[in-house]
Amino acid sequence: xxxxxxxxxxxxxxxxxxxxxxxxxxxxxxxxxxxxxxxxxxxxxxxxxxxxxxxxxxxxx
Length: 61
Hints:
Blueprint: E1 9-12, E2 16-23, E3 27-31, H1 38-41, E4 46-50, E5 54-58
Antiparallel strand pairs: 1-2, 1-5, 2-3, 3-4
C-alpha cells in the first residue's frame, strides 16, 4: 500500500478528491476545496481518510 504525502491529490469514496495536508499514522487529512463542484456538494472543507480507503491521483514528487 502506497501512503500519500503532503501535497498529493487523492481520490476516495465515489470520486471525491482532495489535497493531502497532513499524514497521520493510519490516515491523512484532506482539503476538499480543490474540487470544482465543492460548493454544490455542501461538504466540510476538510476530512480524514484512512490509508486503505484512497488512491493517489497526482503525486507532486
